[in-house]
Amino acid sequence: MGKIWGYIRVSTDKQDRDNQKHGILDFANRNSLMPVEFVEETISSRKKLEERKIWQLLGQMEEGDVLITSEISRLGRSVAEIMRIFTILVEKNITTHIIKGRYKIGGGENKLQSTVLIFAFGLAAEIERELISQRTKEALRRKKAEGVKLGRPIGATGGGKLQEQKEKIVELLEKGLTKTDIAKLIGCHRNSLVKFCKREGLEQYIK
């Protein structure tokens, strides 16, 4: 057996990082996959794949290595990204374990079967993001039709409220919702959300 790699992609939430690392170590211990060398990057799956640490890791890994990650959404946000990543992993004969769902891909298993599974997982994740985005926009249109005033007046900071909903804001940003929709959804002005993202180190979402 080659080297054991644990891949972690996190938001700014330290607890999320710790949960992922604990889950990977627990899985590795139970399956005699030790020691684990961790590769970690913070947030942005919005960067081009070639600019991310997972891409660098793909070039570094060798035949017989093992990759462990908490869930498939940590690797990529689109079908295209996930397919590219797993195509390389399967071609290099690298076994990949996705803890959530108990999936094992590659590592001597049928390559065609693995590719079908990869496509299905990626497609499901993309469909979920699209459905969430559509539901959010429909809810906003319904509120507007009912005469509900959306957002907060210019000048209202809402800093405390934004801080309380930071985890939700990061999740919605990662799912591809616009800052305008998110601001309306949580009840703040878009400018306040933009300032909050800058202050909290979420510059990759600022356009």
Structural write-up:
The N and C termini lie far apart (45 Å). The chain has two domains: 4-125, Resolvase, N-terminal catalytic domain (Rossmann fold), CATH 3.40.50; 149-205. It has eight helices and five strands. The longest helix is centred in the middle third of the chain and has 35 residues, at 111-145. It has a five-stranded mixed beta sheet, sandwiched between helices. The chain is an alpha/beta fold. A hairpin with a 4-residue loop joins strand 4 (95-98) and strand 5.
Spans where pLDDT lies below 50 across 5 or more residues: 152-158
What overall geometry do the principal axes of the alpha carbons give?
elongated
Task: Give the mean pLDDT.
Answer: 79
Adjacency order of strands in the biggest sheet: 2-1-3-4-5
Tally the structural domains: 2
Structural category? alpha/beta
Number of strands: 5
CATH level 3 topology of the largest domain: Rossmann fold
What is the count of DSSP helices, taking H or I runs of 4+ residues? 8
Give the name of the CATH architecture of the largest domain: 3-Layer(aba) Sandwich
How much β-strand is present in the residues? 5-15%
Question: What is the H-and-E element order?
Answer: EHEHEHEEHHHHH
- CATH class of the largest domain, named Alpha Beta
Largest sheet: 5 strands, mixed
Q: What fraction, in percent, of the residue positions are helical?
A: 40-55%
Report the end-to-end length measured between terminal Cα atoms: 45 Å
